[in-house]
Amino acid sequence: MKLSQIIIFIIVAASLSFVGVLAVDKKNQRRSDEQIINNLLLNMTQLEKIGQMVLVDKNAIEPEGVTRKLIGGVMSGGGGNPEKNTPGDWHQMVAAYKNAALKWRLAIPILYGVDAVHGNGNVYGAVIFPHNIGLGATRNASLIEDIGKATAEEVKATGANWNFAPVLSIPMDFRWGRVYECFSTNQDVVAELGTGYINGLRSQGVLATAKHFIGEGTESWGTSNDYKLDQGEITMSIEDLRGTQLKPFQAAIMAGSMSIMISRSSFNGKKISADKYLLTDLLKNELGFKGFLVSDWGAIDQIRGDYYQDIVTSINAGMDMVMLPTDYDLFIDKISVAIDKGDIRQERIDDAVTRILRAKISIGLFDDAVDSSELVNNIGSIKHREVARQAVRESLVLLKNEKEALPIRNQKRILIVGRAANDIGMQAGGWTIEWQGGHGDTTPGTSILEAFKNEFKDSEVIYDPMATGKESIKAEVGVVVVGEQPYAEGVGDRERLLLSPEDLKRIQTAKKNSDKVVLVVLAGRPLIIREVLNDVDAAVMAWLPGTEGAGITDVLSGKYNFSGKLPLSWPKTMEQVEKKDTRDPLFEFGFGLSYHN
Ligand code: BGC
Ligand code: BGC
Fold this sequence. Notes:
Blueprint: H1 3-27, H2 33-43, H3 46-52, E1 54-57, H4 63-69, E2 73-76, H5 87-101, E3 111-114, H6 132-138, H7 141-156, E4 162-163, H8 187-203, E5 209-213, E6 233-234, H9 238-245, H10 247-255, E7 259-262, E8 266-267, E9 270-271, H11 276-286, E10 292-295, H12 307-317, E11 322-324, H13 328-340, H14 346-362, H15 382-395, E12 397-401, E13 413-417, H16 424-428, H17 448-455, E14 460-464, E15 475-483, H18 501-513, E16 514-522, H19 530-534, E17 538-541, H20 550-556, H21 574-579
Parallel strand pairs: 1-2, 1-11, 2-3, 3-4, 5-7, 6-8, 7-10, 13-14, 13-15, 15-16, 16-17
Antiparallel strand pairs: 8-9, 12-17
Helix pairs in contact: 1-2, 2-14, 4-5, 6-15, 7-8, 7-15, 8-10, 12-13, 15-20, 17-20
The structure holds beta-D-glucopyranose (2 copies).
One beta-D-glucopyranose is lined by residues 77-80, 297, 435.
């Protein structure tokens, strides 16, 4: 035989034996997942292994690239939508990447990841649930499991199978732009609600991601390169870090979250993405995590050193999959060299691939035959809207109620003041259609104004968005809706958490034109409102409720009682915020009034 014939013979024999292995596995269900993984590993080339470790943003890769480089995961970042943002176009886009992976020899299915952090928020028409901080106020783990399940159904409807959620951080500094992505400042609440959410995702075969490990929300102000706090420096002892931040991640591992996203912040001067102690010794060895670690967007580049060294450091620290916003070819070249030179050992690569395959098997990716195009009707379904509306109801926290301003019943005239009252984008906040969110009718939903018009059919509902006072004749009750403009991540790091001058004016207008004033706050975190509260009769914290504004009128009308409890302690002053001082707050952790108390 000539050399070329020998090579062909070996390739054919190897593939046949592999096909044989799969066939035997199909028949013989008793073979464990670990054996399947080992067999795959034995048959994979180095490039196939490396490909599994690569997660590329869809804007940086065509389906053809998935086949050519044997890529293991593709994703949509915030706003990573198809040109036409319809469920059908989503399904087509994702399917093209999935099919591309099935074209190569081993046909290992890809993961397609999305940030469905409050429903499948990128998708036009998806149900937008309250952001996590509102869910924290419900304290209702079984409701949050329902939300995880509904979200997973809307994720699967697009063909995606991986959700970069839930956030399990403990937001100690409210100036941070990601407070609303967290459930609570209390570890036990976060652990319990995070577990519920993960159970919900798992029930539908969607891969969960506990993120971002570890300590986010405790960085020092002014230590971030790009922002103020986000991705900055965490300075505390390892004992404190373990004591105050670890529990929710332990719970997530117990609940079967098979991926964990690593924070871009630094712990005591070292990027966590480069920290072998935290990634390998703690997560994998001590806590026994069997899934895989994925880096955050562009995180590897932030490690000190050149790109080659960053890759070596992070993979050797225990990173298993790398999220690449741009050049995946370059990454593959560099990591290949590192393996050839022995800077990264073969066992480390095999361990990473084993973990990734294990996670893929855990969500049934290898036996996924359902054509998800039939599932598109799940997106924005009435059933899911009902779940979201319940969540809105249960998330509302009644901060003040005097002169029986609430509930609102049988009023001749209701005055609604504030642009936020008629702005789905503001109700939804960041991570909605676009990374930073947006204003107005960005996606279908019920605004607070519409909800009032539907609920109070016998009253005259007058709307005065800019608080001109012109259109408003005296009303029995004025409802003024104020709050934060949409933001996401470090863009929302904000030095002073105050209401805008426009919002303060709106409150005065409502006061002038109505007998009683009800304040509704739409915000992702506590704002400094001590003085403002003196000007209103009732105040409700509505967080970032999402598309189902009717949940608000359900409670303001008295049809349902208030049950939300603050998931954090609400500071009186900016000084308290800066010092993270929870003594003598405006409202204690757990505070929340209801009717008749
Ligand atoms: C965020 C992650 C997110 C990722 C992908 C990052 O900037 O920190 O939470 O999952 O982008 O969109
Ligand atoms: C992406 C987000 C990502 C962010 C990180 C944006 O362009 O859409 O998903 O989290 O960049 O900076």
